[in-house]
Amino acid sequence: MTLRVLAAMSGGVDSAVAAARVAEAGHDVTGVHLALSKNPQSYRTGARGCCTVEDSHDARRAADVIGIPFYVWDMSEEFDREVVQDFVAEYESGNTPNPCLRCNEKIKFEAVLDRAIALGFDAVATGHHVRKIDGRLVRSVDAAKDQSYVLGVLDAEQIAHAVFPLGDCTKEEVRAEADRRGLSVADKPDSHDICFIADGDTAGFLNRRIGERPGPIQDEEGNVVGTHNGAHTFTVGQRKGLGLGGAAHPRYVLSIEPVQNTVTVGPRASLAVDEITGVRPVWSGSGPLTEPTECHVQLRAHGEVYPATVWQRGAEGGDELVVRLAEPAAGVATGQAVVVYDGDTVLGSATISATARSAAVASGTTTA
């Protein structure tokens, strides 16, 4: 069956090859590049970016080679509201957000998909390294490039209207195919860092948006050991940039209290947690796990996978996801996603809202 497919083309090699594969399969493909900034010069330029003027030109050239129509959609207002402002608000609340995950959720697979369906398209194709099998997300065969974690926020309906042509190959194979197809992006480096922070200085960006708010850095006993210019510039697990020279042992950020504007630091051992609570659970690969179920969870992009017992419980104002790790994890930050897997298959996800240490972890009986 021939489908009308909207190919999201970022200007990179992955999305170009994805669009080419869908077109070669005989589908009616239209390429679209998302303009995410009213002022493109404020975003990264060159190979390090993912939303730049150069990227839009690269996407257009790729569409010309493939032989498909190409358009640029202005999604800057949605991006600023749903990703940039959310990023700032989350840090201001003491959380550590993942803007790429938020962009996938709110822009690429909500705003874009909604518009695509309204225009009569059947699906949206992207260059994400992930497979879709029987309507469920499954890890890419290229473990180093797997992006199932940052897509774990998608619901079943969004996945049903998504096409992921690259999940069955490695990044090296994608580049080789791009070269064979004559796509100029074959050797283009992957994007890195946060696209809307032009100089890569996240703390400086947040200070410009929120303002400097000096406050204390304290140890676990509440003793003040230093000062900071804004609790919003720290993240749980951070070691560098604390300005606490002279300590006998390395110290890490253990927690951030935005109301009191306090950052608490301590030894690495105190980062260990084995109990996680998540809010706003989304189940895309199964029904809600209302009974304790043994599975695996991933707590950050390209992070370690942990065996865990997971279940959803009712709570005042909504449902919560409860995660009991079989082994403690270090540096788990609120605001990140916990993605639940059955083997390589994504079952669902939630946003981490709280972490805790069981008595065994707190006493040092088990270690992270």
Strand content: 25-35%
Number of strands: 17
Largest sheet data: 6 strands, antiparallel, barrel
Structural class: alpha/beta
Q: Over all CA atoms, what is the radius of gyration?
A: 22 Å
Uncertain segments are 44-49
- What name does the CATH topology of the largest domain carry? Rossmann fold
Could you tell me how far the N terminus lies from the C terminus, measured between alpha carbons in angstroms?
51 Å
What topology, given as strand order, has the largest sheet? Answer: 12-15-14-13-16-17
User: What's the CATH C level of the largest domain?
Assistant: Alpha Beta
> Rough shape?
globular
Number of individual domains: 3
As a percent range, the share of helical residues equals: 25-40%
Corresponding CATH architecture of the largest domain:
3-Layer(aba) Sandwich
Average pLDDT over all residues = 91
Assigned CATH superfamily of the largest domain: HUPs
Count of discrete alpha- or pi-helical segments spanning 4 or more residues:
8
SSE topology string: EHEHEHHEEEHEHHEEEEEEEEEEH
